Amino acid sequence: MAHIIVVGNEKGGSGKSTTSMHVATALARMGHKVGALDLDVRQRSFGRYLENRAAFAQREGLDLPTPLLGHLEPESPGGPDPLSQAVDALDRECDFILLDCPGSHTRLSQMAHTLADTLITPMNDSFVDFDLLARMSPEGRILGPSIYAEMVWSARQLRGEAGAGPIDWLVLRNRLGTQAMHNKRKVGGALTTLSKRIGFRVAPGFSERVIFRELFPRGLTLLDLKDIGTEQLSMSNIAARQELRELIGELNLPGVSVSF
């Protein structure tokens, strides 16, 4: 069976689609067969990213390793579950299936979390995003899990009842700034404390970089730059590739050895 990776967070703008695209494409470039589903049926940022990639590769005559984008059928009363159908179709030919969830609570997102072998939760490094994981007092004391953490807990319980195994949950600290060190330390300390209480791992994600916005229209990732003739990478691009390399290593996926 394919290993299912879910990228989820009930808040927009945390970097879910960028994370999804780079993880899925990195695995494909390493020779793994990767399926992809965009569960944000309204905005479809991840799906459009992959469609942009296919169109750019065809136009330029490039053979870019690309995840297989699955299709969700419209849900109909009494009909089969569209998510299970789409996952089953990809499972027949993929080593990994990556599900990108919307930045809101939906039934599809809730179901996707129960399928997750690995859960990636990108968050901006601020207490605004931290609030989705836990409620805090004005003095900075953690009062208890918040809405998203409770949803993950429910998904874990359902998986346990079904004998599906645990969810390996990784929280990514995206947009870690070099400034505002006091806030960075406070958020980091709160995440470390919370991780021990509700069971997730913490890792640095992607810094804020212009390159990510520039890559989207062509469907490219950091790993594709040499394929399009960019021989000399800037220091920022080299640092971003290292962030991706460390993220893939931190995920500790079965059968994956980082090779880029």
TrEMBL record:
Tell me where the signal peptide lies.
none
Could you tell me the superkingdom of the organism this chain comes from? Answer: Bacteria
Q: Which residues form a coiled coil?
A: none
**InterPro entries per record:** DNA_Partitioning_ATPase, MipZ, P-loop_NTPase
This one is known as Chromosome partitioning protein
